[in-house]
């Protein structure tokens, strides 16, 4: 992009249209002079100044970013200093002391109203205060009332620390639930099952945000499973299916497999599909019968 040697030009009270009909060099000089006189070097401060709009400048001079414009105007050093100064101000403001004017009774009332607003029937959690924008941070409430238990109970809510689980215990509970259902449990099912840790706890232990990844880790290297807790290898699953085929004289239907799973000692439909990498029972039988033909 062509660079210009700037001459200081005094900006007169002309309309933007009158400025824009000038040559590129003149327009750039006017913009630069305006910035220097008003100490404007960031895109945010320029936007508030209500001068020639930045999109208009972008279109005229083919610049994509504010940084490119600053380089074109030879104001990039001033821009960097302004950005650095702004960051210092932001950091400093984050450490400013919060002045709380409300008394204890009013603070608790605000907390209760906030909890009702977001639908937290047993009081908002500390995380929810931040997520949904409570007026103050949880630190304010903790300093006033000593602990979170006091905050909840003073508002008429129950405080439940909950059961503390180890990862080993979580794995055991999930596998027992999987054996009970004969398949993976969904997020909704986990939350409804009172015998299981809450979903948030499970995901935290496995360092993920997806329950499918938790199940993948649990099932990796383990060929399973039945409603009574038996563990099967892939080969054993194929053998069981083939025996049932011989008894009936025909492939079992999905409903027949589900019925046997409920009786126990038989892998679930979902487990079978996963091992055979298909969602169609016809393809499962095709694999089993073709292997037998080749023996």
List keywords for this structure.
295 residues, mainly alpha, 0% strand, disordered N terminus
Whole-number tally of structural domains = 4
Shape designation: flat
Mean pLDDT: 79
The biggest beta sheet is recorded as:
none
Q: What's the alpha carbon Rg, rounded to whole Å?
A: 34 Å
What percent of the residues sit in helical stretches (DSSP H or I)? 55-70%
State the end-to-end distance. 74 Å
Low-confidence stretches: 1-14, 90-96, 223-227
> What fraction of the residues are assigned to beta strands by DSSP?
under 5%
String of helices and strands: HHHHHHHHHHHHHHHHHH
Number of helices, where a helix is a run of at least 4 consecutive DSSP H or I residues: 18
By helix and strand content, what is the structural category? mainly alpha
* Assembly classification: single chain
Number of strands: 0
Tell me what the structure shows.
- The chain is an all-alpha fold.
- The chain has 4 domains: 16-94, no CATH class; 104-154; 172-219, no CATH class; 234-293.
- The protein is 61% helix and 0% strand.
- It has 18 helices and no strands.
- The protein has helices at residues 16-20, 24-38, 43-49, 54-61, 66-72, 76-94, 104-118, 126-131, 138-145, 148-154, 167-181, 187-192, 199-206, 211-219, 234-248, 254-263, 269-276, 281-293.
- The longest helix has 19 residues, at 76-94.
- The radius of gyration is 34 Å and the shape is flat.
- It starts with 15 loop residues before the first helix and ends with a helix.
- The relative contact order is 0.05.
């Amino acid at each position: 992009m062509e660079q210009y040697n700037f001459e200081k030009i005094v900006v007169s009270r002309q309309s933007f249209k009158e400025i824009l009909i000038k040559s590129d060099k003149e327009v750039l000089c006017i913009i630069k002079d305006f910035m220097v006189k008003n100490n404007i070097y960031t895109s945010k401060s320029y936007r508030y100044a209500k001068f020639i709009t930045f999109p208009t400048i972008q279109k005229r001079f083919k610049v994509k970013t504010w940084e490119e414009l600053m380089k074109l105007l030879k104001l990039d050093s001033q821009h960097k200093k302004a950005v650095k100064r702004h960051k210092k101000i932001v950091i400093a403001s984050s450490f400013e002391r919060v002045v709380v004017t409300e008394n204890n009774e009013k603070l608790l009332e605000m907390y209760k109203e906030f909890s009702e607003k977001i639908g937290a029937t047993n009081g908002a959690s500390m995380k929810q205060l931040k997520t949904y924008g409570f007026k103050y941070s949880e630190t304010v409430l903790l300093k006033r009332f000593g602990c979170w238990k006091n905050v909840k109970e003073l508002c008429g809510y129950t405080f439940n620390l909950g059961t503390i689980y180890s990862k080993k215990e979580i794995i055991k509970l999930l596998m027992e639930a999987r054996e009970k259902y004969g398949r993976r449990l969904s997020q909704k099912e986990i939350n409804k099952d009172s015998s299981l840790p809450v979903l948030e706890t499970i995901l935290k232990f496995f360092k993920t945000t997806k329950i499918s990844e938790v199940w993948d880790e649990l099932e990796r290297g383990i060929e399973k499973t039945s409603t009574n807790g038996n563990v099967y290898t892939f080969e054993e699953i194929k053998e069981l299916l083939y025996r049932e085929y011989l008894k009936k004289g025909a492939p079992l239907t999905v409903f027949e497999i589900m019925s046997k799973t409920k009786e126990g000692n038989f892998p679930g439909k979902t487990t079978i599909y996963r091992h055979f990498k298909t969602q169609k029972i016809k393809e499962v039988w095709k694999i089993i019968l073709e292997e037998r033909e080749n023996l």
